[in-house]
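Today's session is about reading a structure prediction critically. Students often jump straight to the picture, but the first step is always the sequence itself: look for stretches that repeat, for charged clusters, for runs of hydrophobic residues. Only then move on to the predicted structure, which in these notes is written as discrete structure tokens rather than atom positions. Here is the chain we will use throughout the hour.
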Amino acid sequence: MFRRTKSLIGTAGTAAVREIRGLPAAQDPAVRRYFASRANWFFLAAAVVLYSVSWPTLPITHSVPPYAMPVVAAFAAFPVALAWSAPLIGWAVSVVSAQMIGILVPTVDGWQWSIQVTHLIALLVLTFFAYVRCSLRWIPVIWVCTAIVFAIAAPPGARAGWVFGLTFLAVVVALMRFLTRSRRQLAESAEQTQLVESQKAILQERTRIARDLHDVVAHRMSVVVVMAQTARYRLADVSDEAAAEFEAIAVSARTSLDEVRQLLGVLRTDGEVLSTPNPGLGDLGGLVMQTRMTGAVVDLSASVEPNSIGEASSLVIYRIVQESLANATRHAPGARIEVRIAPVGDGTTEIEVRNSVPTSEPVRLPGPGTGIPGMIERAAAVGGVLTTEPTDDGGFVVRAVIPDHGGQTVGVSASTFHASA
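Below is the predicted structure for this chain, in token form.
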């Protein structure tokens, strides 16, 4: 019997909760946000307790018609339910209702307060939380209004003490909040100062790296340029073919030197402004010509309009082609290289650099290979993708799909070049 009764109660409770949740008011975001807080549940329970005490005890202190008793008790107790979520609103309701009850409802049996004890408790709780949680500029307003209410509602001999107590509470809470805010602002200021100092240290380190790289790399490349240009004057019996080869070396070294200086300028923080623009699609022809000077056979097919590609994407495409050509000439000497660039049609551009089987031994250079990971990172930086794989005929192919304007992300399931190859 007990288990059956318990089961029926549980079923009824579940059904009641389901019905309450289905009400339109329960779907309101403000209502759901209110009941999501445990603190609001606590103050709602406190308001219910105060209401259960205020209603039956109201006839002891005030002369109220029976039909008005639940309303008066509600104004005295239920504003406490807003002590955490909206203390300023709850305080305002409690203050206004205290004044109206004191003016309109007469007391009985020599009760010296114009409001009930439950209303007094609710007003003190709401005043404290309004002090704590409202804006600092509202504290003087809350103090003045609450002091006026207590000066009218309290017995004549207790008014000064209540006003002094409210004043002391307001001053203490305001000082504590001011100190807390000052400490928080001081901590935020210290954190910002530390961030600025760390950024300054990073910029100084970048400047040092740029300076060191310039001293080492740029100086060595400048020496290469000078040696290549003066070779025909320093060496006897230099043929025209050798002189042309030295001149090609000098041109390639000067171009690389300009790019190195441009990249170093990005690292510098001393206000140096670069006058050389970033390379892009319009510079691919020169890049291919320089590669052909090494003896490589390079075919370039570009059916995309350079002005339709953003600067960031254009630079990424240039760097991918540049690194792919460098890898092909180093790892597949004598191979035929095909460079194809074409629009895909969905706001992206596809790049393919394919080389055939090498005809001689690859050039062995010390150090780890970071070319392919670097290309993948460059493509991802603008929302593109890059893949590499060996071909069926023993060659190698690099494919990339780059958005025409950086910021969008592309998803590629198959290469159009691969499908047509």
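Discussion point for the tutorial: The radius of gyration is 41 Å.
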